[in-house]
Amino acid sequence: VPIGCGDAPVFPGDAIVGDADGVVVIPAHLADEIADEAVDMTAFEDFVAEKVKEGRSILGLYPATEEATRTDFAAWREAKGR
Predict the structure, then answer these.
(1) What is the pLDDT along the chain (82 residues), one digit of tens a residue?
(2) What is the value of pTM for the model shown?
(3) What is the pLDDT of residue 6?
(4) In 3D, which of 66, 5, 7 has the Cα closest to residue 16?
(5) Which of 31, 32, 39, 76 is most buried, by the most CB atoms less than 10 A from its CB?
């Protein structure tokens, strides 16, 4: 049955995800879409962290406002199989 958790409604089948920063409720009908987005976001954040460790400036890198960043990220994903 549906419940309330804090101010959030939680329905059967919803996903609840938590980490050190907090907890979110993901409606069941959005879970696959959000999971795909999370995989992409995690890959991009790993790419950014690697590039910054190599000495690249954060400007134009995060957010990816330069076309070169998007091109480099696509090549990085291909090379890493991500």
Answers:
(1) 999 988 899 999 999 999 999 999 999 999 999 999 999 999 999 999 999 999 999 999 999 999 999 999 999 999 999 9
(2) 0.77
(3) 86
(4) 5
(5) 76
Neighbouring-strand partners of residue 8:
5
Contacts of 26 (CB under 8 A, 6+ apart): 14, 15, 16, 17, 34
Residue 39 to residue 47: CA distance in whole angstroms: 12
CA angle 62–67–71, rounded 5-degree value: 90
How far the first Cα of the chain sits from its last, in Å, is 38
* Alpha-carbon gap, residue 45 to 78, rounded angstroms: 15
Burial of 44 (0-12, 13-18, 19+ CB in 10 A): buried
